[in-house]
Amino acid sequence: MRLAFLMVFINLFCLIPKSEAQSKNTSFTTEFGEQVLEHTIELPVSIEEAWKYITDKDYLTRWAAPFVSIDLRIGGTWESSYNPKSDVGNDGNIVMEILTYRPTSLCSMIVTKTTKGFKHPHIVKQVAINYELKKRKNKKTLLRLSMVGWKKGKEWDEVYQFFSWGNEYSLNKLYVAITEGPVNWAESELVTKQ
After folding, report:
1. pLDDT at 191
2. From CA 87, how far away is CA 50, in angstroms rounded?
3. Per the domain annotation, does 6 fall within a domain?
4. Cα–chain-centroid distance for residue 160?
5. What is the mean pLDDT of residues 60-79?
6. What CATH number does residue 35 fall under?
7. What DSSP character marks residue 124?
8. Is the distance from CB of 84 to CB of 185 less than 8 angstroms?
9. pLDDT, tens digit, for every residue of 92-109?
10. Residue among 48, 47, 43, 83 at smallest CA distance from 65
C-alpha cells in the first residue's frame, strides 16, 4: 500500500515541471498559537479572470478536477470528483459548503463530505478554506489559499501535512493550466474510473 501511494505521489509530482512550480508556502502561527496553512501564487491573469478560475465550473475543470459543480452563494456548494462521469450528489464526490464570498476577492468554504477512505474526515470538516485574491501590477493576481482552524494532535498533523502538499500541488496545477492549457484528465493519474 505504501509503495502504491509512493508511486502515485511520484507520478503526480512529476506532472508539474520544476520550472513551473510557482507557489510559496507562507504558513504561519498566529499570536494565539493557531496554525494557518497558507500557500500563495502569483497568477499571470487579471483578478477578474483569476476569480473565474476559482468560482466558475468551466474554469475549475481546467485544473481542479474533471467534474465540478458550484452554486456560488452563501450556503451553496462546491462539489467535485476525480471521476469525469460523476454527477451532483454522487457518493464519491467531495462537497464543500460556501460560508461567504466577495466577488473577485474572497471565497470561504468548509468541507462537508470527503471521498470514501479519506483519513480523518472529522478533522478536515472543522477547518475553513479561504481563497483570497489581490490585484497586482501588469494584470497579475496574487492568490492566497489558506486553511484555518487547526488543532494540535497526531491526526491533525497528518491532515495538515496532506493539505500542505496538496494545496501546493493544486496551485501549481492552476498555474500550469493558465500558462500551458488545461489538465488532460484522460491522461491524469488522479482520475478515478468509478
Report:
1. 67
2. 25
3. no
4. 13
5. 97
6. 3.30.530.20
7. H
8. yes
9. 999 999 999 999 999 999
10. 83
Residue 9 CA, distance from chain mean position: 16
Q: Is 168 helix (H, G, I), strand (E, B) or coil?
A: helix
pLDDT in the model for residue 188:
76
Using only the alpha carbons of the chain, give its radius of gyration: 16
C-alpha cell at 8: 502515485
Q: What's the number of domains the chain is made of?
A: 1
Angle at 28 between CA 76 and CA 50, to 5 degrees: 45
* Segments in the chain forming alpha helices (H): 2-14, 47-55, 57-60, 121-124, 154-180
- Residue with C-alpha cell 451553496? 76
On whether residue 56 sits in a domain, the answer given is: yes
pLDDT grade for 8, boundaries at 50, 70 and 90: very low
Residue 34 lies in a domain: yes
**Which tens digits make up the pLDDT trace of 18-58?**
435 589 999 999 999 999 999 999 999 999 999 999 999 99
Residue 184 has a CB neighbour count (10 Å cut-off) of 10
DSSP state of 10: H
150 near 124, Cβ under 8 Å?
A: no
Structural domain of residue 24, as residue ranges?
A: 19-180
Contact (CB, 8 A) for 139 and 45: yes
Residues 61 and 80 sit within 8 Å (Cβ to Cβ):
no
pLDDT of residue 119 exceeding 60: yes
Residue 161 lies in a domain: yes
